[in-house]
Design goal:
mainly beta; 6 strands; single chain; six-stranded antiparallel β-sheet; 1 helix; 40% strand
Length: 88
């Protein structure tokens, strides 16, 4: 979504394989429901267009849905509508 540093690569109980990226300014993005092994590790610097993983079906909480990316944004620890930041 934007350049930053990978701060978490976890296997969340409900959201499955999850990657959190810190973009600075207390802005983070979370990509979850990824396939088993992301292509990044904690501490990696990523830039726009880098592949961090592939869509999977690891999220138990969303197992009734088809394979998809669970994407969320937080500013200062509070959820933010991603569309507000994407300019749409």
């Amino acid at each position: 979504p934007a350049s930053g540093v990978v701060t978490e690569v976890t296997e969340d109980v409900m959201l499955g394989t999850t990657v959190v990226i810190d973009h600075g300014g207390n802005l983070t993005t979370t990509c979850a429901n990824l396939a088993g092994m992301p292509t990044v590790e904690v501490g990696d610097t990523v830039t726009v267009g880098d592949v961090i993983g592939s869509v999977g079906d690891t999220a138990i909480a969303e197992s009734a849905l088809p394979s998809h990316l669970h994407f969320s944004v937080a500013q200062d620890g509070q959820s933010v509508d991603p569309m507000e930041l994407l300019g749409h």
